[in-house]
Request: fold
Amino acid sequence: MSTWHELLKIMTDADVIGIISSVILITGLGYVLTAMHIFSSQFENEISRLVLVVSVPALSFVSFMQPMNPKEIQQGLMLIILGFVLYIILLVISPFVYWCVHDTDQRRVLGIITTFGSTTVFGIPIAGAIYGSQGVICASLFNMAYRILLYTYVYIRMAKQQITIHQILKVLANPIVLATFLGLFCWLYQPLAPKVIVGKHMITFYRIDITAPWLYQPLKYLASLAAPLSWLLIGCTMGAQRSLKASLIDPLTWYYGIQKSFLVPAICLGATLAGRIIGLDSISLTGIASITILMSSPTSTIPVIYSLNYHQYPLMTAKCSIVSNITSIIALPFWLIILKMI
Reply:
């Protein structure tokens, strides 16, 4: 009885309902406006650039504008290591999930798009909306492995080419990577950086949330655009797809969507909770929840673009991407309830 009461309490929680309804309604709005040709494909491209070049980098940077303690440094290091470990494990085991697919290359491509989700426009904004700056920091640190592997390993496998200096520079020049590293450096360097007196407190001079609110507030406003614009963008992407009907009647795409939105986050949640049980408790519950939400994201657009450019089952990846947007939204209430219970 108490379990049912707790579950009912979580399901009626204003924050949970607010996030779920926001994702569904804003995504639906983007879909309807694009399907009705009120939004053009050019609008979708411009919104995508705004999110990836301005809003998410601002969100990543301002989240680090807070005090730092040694325990958080240990957690940050563990999140980076855990990111590499989990992504590599998923890359190894994901192709075996598609045992029903006979073609080895096709299973490999399915494994890649199962492993890499659209964490930038789905996972990080939701983690930030629910868990605040701590959620964004945890998600951003865990996501470092994602960005490195996505632009190196995935490129090599999908393009069947060797990694080049150009690819490495492309990773380092990504605005989100730059903002994350800059924010991380500022956060870690606080004990050694010059201080200024604000009120009765000694504050690191670049803590712009306190020393330069005129600069921090515009960045905060830009960061707050990340979530709604990201969800709107997902809806626009779905509305622009002419193969929506073909995607919805393909059994493989729904099988893929279940693995992407339910199995992958379940594996990551189970692994992180198991780590706490055996004594690796440096990762907080906020970190574990942020990782789970991150890994429930729909298909990343980068592997899909690779598959189109290098003729690696482009129709299959496009259809899987469409359905994963639907299954991720369906899965979101489930994961929010599970995480609230934990």
